Amino acid sequence: MSPRPAAVGDVHDLAAAMPHVTVVHGKSGNAVYQVGGKSFVFFRTPRPDARDPATGEKYDDVIVFWVGSPEEKDALVRDDTSPYFTTPHFDGHPSVLLRASRLHEISRDELAELVSDAWLAQASKRRGEQWLAEHGLL
Question: What confidence tier does 42 reach under pLDDT thresholds 50, 70, 90?
Answer without folding.
Answer: very high
